[in-house]
Amino acid sequence: MAEDYEPIEDNDPEKVLRDFLAQFGIQPGPDGQIDLTKVMASMQPLMTNFATQMAGYGATDGASGMNWSFISATAHKVAAAAGDDPTPTPAQRAADADAAGLAELWLDEATAFERLATSPASWSRADWINETFAIWQRLVRPIVTNMTKAIADLAAQGPEDPQMAQLQAMMQPMLRQSAAAMLGSQLGTSLGHLATLAVSASDLGLPLIAPPRTVLLTTNVAAFAAGLEQPEADVTLFLAVREAARQRLFASVAWLGPQLLALVEHYARDIHIDPLALEQAIEGGLNGVTDPADLERLGVELSGKLFTPAITSEQAEVLARLETLLALVEGWVDDVSTQIIQRWMPNAASLVEAVRRRRAAGGPAEQALKDLVGLELRPRRTRDAANLWAAVRTSRGLAERDAAWDHPDRVPTAADLDDPLGYAQQEPLDDGPDAMDEALAKLLNDEQGS
Fold first, then answer.
1. Helices (runs of H) and strands (runs of E) counted in the chain
2. Which of 65, 80, 272, 383 has its CA at 20 to 30 Å from residue 25's CA atom?
3. Residue 186: CB partners within 8 Å, gap ≥ 6?
4. What's the rounded Cα separation, in Å, for the pair 251 and 118?
5. Percent helix, strand and coil across the chain, each rounded to 5?
6. Chunked mean pLDDT (size 10), the chain, 450 residues
7. 142 sits in which H/E element
């Protein structure tokens, strides 16, 4: 790259293309024209090298240009760089299974939801990436679609000069590939970072696996316990209770998991890719790409810059609904798990406080999720939700508390979180037949009788 090169500060397509070619020593001749043969001779080795590198990871999605195997490989590399991540030993698996079994026994008395029909599991960080990757693919596809549109928009704003327009058309496949690779690197980096933070399969509050099952990440649980003055076995048991409760909720409430994922997808569909940021990223770094490590570097540099900060009114509404629903999930888990461990574990208060501090700190997990799907999630009202669920349990019993999940229309709203006692004192909805139901049933019976 030329030493005096600076990123573009305008969006003139012809200037963009000329500046980009200048990085490769390609300048207009005395007649002001660019030798297309020279352009192809200079660019062909880069294009060939780039295509060969990507092909080494597997097939590319023809519709989007994304190489999902590259994203997965990047995530694994980032997770591995964070430290040793051995496969859980038989002894660790047995200890986790014992914790999950005891958690299920305690949960039988703390919730009306049935036990999980699946067996518990112990994962490494690499396992978490592999097992949750399909859901992450689903969640980021709308962003990939928007990136493809941003590339098309750049092409539509091409130079007026016929020769420059021809040059841009020649380079479109490479630009699309490079943009996909940089986005893929950003996604892989964020996913790998999340893998170092999650202590269980549903730790983020999202249903990332199917069917629901209790899963602990052995290495990350040990790291979390190391920061506390508590026996690791107690921390493992406490996290197993929370994970089993959350997974019971997902397993018993059929609409909940799909709605959470649908809200994330809805938000991602409206994310706007900043064409200028994409353009500058490609122009400023593509000729420095010689191996996959360079792509990872570009992905890190692009992190936080690709998505425009503006949030549409529709996104704001979706985000509010999503944060409320996540707060209700985590608040319910707090109420259930706190009731259990206060009865059975003498160090309950310190364990509950440790989870609260971790949640309040946010930090790396929040940033990784923001970089991954452009979503700033912080269920700020989790404590309000926990108070609401506790109030309902105290007022009407745990069966009524859990029955509130029967239908999306029965779940507390953001307004209910402002008045938890008022919600708890409401009369439970009567799910029995009303007058219209009875009239319809009578009509059907009469017809059958005749």
1. 19, 2
2. 65
3. 299, 300, 302, 303, 306, 371
4. 10
5. 65, 0, 30
6. 38 64 70 73 68 68 77 93 95 97 96 96 98 94 82 67 69 72 84 94 93 97 90 95 98 96 90 70 58 61 60 86 93 95 90 87 70 73 94 95 95 94 79 50 51
7. helix 125-156
